[in-house]
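Module 6 notes. Inverse folding takes a fixed backbone as the condition and produces residue identities as the prediction. Think of it as a translation problem where the source language is geometry and the target language is the twenty amino acids. Below is one complete input and output pair. Work through it position by position during the lab.
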């Protein structure tokens, strides 16, 4: 095997064709630890900033929220398409709430309010029930039926909550007050300082994330232009960045790190609301007493009660709104956009089809995984098209054939295949670091992009 040559003038690696290197230390060149650290740090910071989780329950502390976010971060690293689907579904729900509220003449209701409601920002207090969060659709129902005035909270006040400025509000029903009013409820000073500290850290992290991901993608594009190898791990990182950017777009108007919800108070009982709702409200509730307003399967775990009892929120009514909202995309256009994003994310791995992997087995695994992922997406697309050949304007993603045996094989088999392919790609991306082409460690020559006069 040809031996790589290290230039004494530049200390950069210059190598003949097919030369390979194992672990490379740091000098004035890229080392193995540089590639590993740049990829992992970029993945972590982009995913951490991307995640906009729902409002935690009142009794939940910092560490409960932290570990919940960590679990979603791991999911985002292994299967970022699922987080993309969840964010798209939440955006669609906020968009519907905007349309519904505008139909009632509520011109001050925005996407921010829709996201805030669906994340558990509004908690309903009644005479005969423990407090429980209400979604945007349920708030719309209460306003439409005159149980409640339109929540009088502005976008600025909502975002002030996400900045750690404690602005809890108590909004009463029209029977209690002619106008909704905000009632101050100052928290313990230590809690406020803790929230503000972590919020300031998040703002700093967002800035670092933008710089880090921008630099990472720019460097990969530069290496491609100069025909320098891009390692499989770097390519996987670029694919994750693609998903995080799309997720951040869908969650752009969703408040982040809200810890104190807004209280909505009605002067009538839940029993009265249920009686007036008629036969639609006769069934026992699963999530909250207002389940009749929207289906209980609006949360993914609601389709599998046994799993919900084991892994989902166990207190009924809900004390917080789960993050696993069953995606209900907004029309055909959003479904097409989401499908194209997932296909593009999966297809990026084909860019390493001719990469010089350490072994022929790893090259075969990579290529097989690429094909398997694309094939599973194709089968899933066909199943969706046949199942919803004449779909209503909106439908839940987890419904229909996905819940019935043996038709659900067409959902779980491609899903399992796709996940296995993703795990194989990730495994090969890490294993390839043990022996990369020598040119993978050559520094990018930025001066070649500067035109000479």
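Target side of the pair, the amino acids:
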């Amino acid at each position: 095997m040809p031996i790589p040559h290290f230039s004494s003038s530049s200390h950069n690696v210059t190598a003949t064709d097919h030369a390979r290197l194992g672990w490379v230390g740091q000098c004035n060149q890229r080392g193995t630890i540089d590639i590993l650290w740049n990829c992992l740090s970029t993945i972590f910071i982009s995913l951490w900033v991307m995640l906009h989780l729902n409002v935690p329950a009142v009794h939940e502390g910092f560490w409960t929220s932290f570990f919940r976010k960590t679990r979603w971060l791991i999911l985002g690293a292994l299967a970022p398409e699922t987080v993309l689907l969840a964010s798209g579904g939440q955006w669609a729900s906020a968009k519907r709430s905007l349309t519904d509220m505008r139909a009632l003449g509520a011109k001050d209701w925005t996407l921010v309010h829709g996201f805030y409601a669906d994340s558990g920002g509004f908690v309903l207090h009644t005479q005969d029930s423990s407090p429980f969060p209400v979604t945007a659709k349920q708030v719309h129902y209460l306003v439409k039926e005159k149980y409640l005035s339109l929540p009088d909270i502005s976008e600025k006040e909502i975002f002030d909550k996400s900045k750690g400025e404690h602005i809890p509000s108590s909004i009463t029903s029209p029977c209690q007050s002619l106008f909704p009013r905000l009632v101050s409820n100052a928290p313990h000073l230590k809690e406020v300082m803790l929230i503000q500290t972590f919020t300031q850290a998040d703002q700093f992290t967002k800035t670092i994330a933008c710089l880090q991901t921008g630099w990472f993608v720019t460097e990969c594009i530069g290496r491609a232009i100069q025909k320098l190898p891009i390692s499989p791990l770097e390519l996987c990182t670029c694919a994750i960045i693609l998903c995080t950017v799309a997720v951040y777009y869908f969650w752009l108007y969703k408040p982040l790190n809200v810890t104190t919800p807004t209280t909505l108070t009605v002067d009538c009982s839940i029993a009265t609301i249920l009686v007036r709702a008629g036969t639609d409200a006769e069934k026992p509730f699963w999530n909250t007493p207002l389940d009749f307003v929207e289906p209980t399967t609006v949360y993914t775990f609601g389709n599998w009660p046994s799993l919900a009892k084991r892994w989902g929120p166990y207190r009924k009514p809900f004390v917080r709104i789960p993050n696993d909202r069953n995606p209900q995309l907004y029309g055909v256009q959003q479904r097409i956009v989401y499908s194209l994003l997932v296909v593009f994310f999966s297809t990026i791995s084909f860019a390493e089809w001719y990469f010089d992997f350490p072994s022929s087995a790893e090259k075969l695994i990579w290529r097989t995984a690429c094909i398997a992922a694309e094939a599973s997406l194709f089968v899933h697309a066909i199943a969706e098209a046949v199942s919803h050949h004449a779909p209503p304007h909106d439908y839940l993603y987890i419904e229909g054939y996905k819940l019935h045996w043996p038709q659900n094989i067409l959902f779980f088999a491609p899903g399992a295949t796709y996940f296995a392919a993703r795990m194989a790609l990730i495994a090969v991306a890490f294993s390839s670091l043990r022996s990369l082409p020598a040119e993978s460690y050559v520094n990018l020559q930025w001066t070649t992009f500067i035109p000479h006069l």
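Reference fact for the lab report: Residues 15 and 336 are 45 Å apart (CA to CA).
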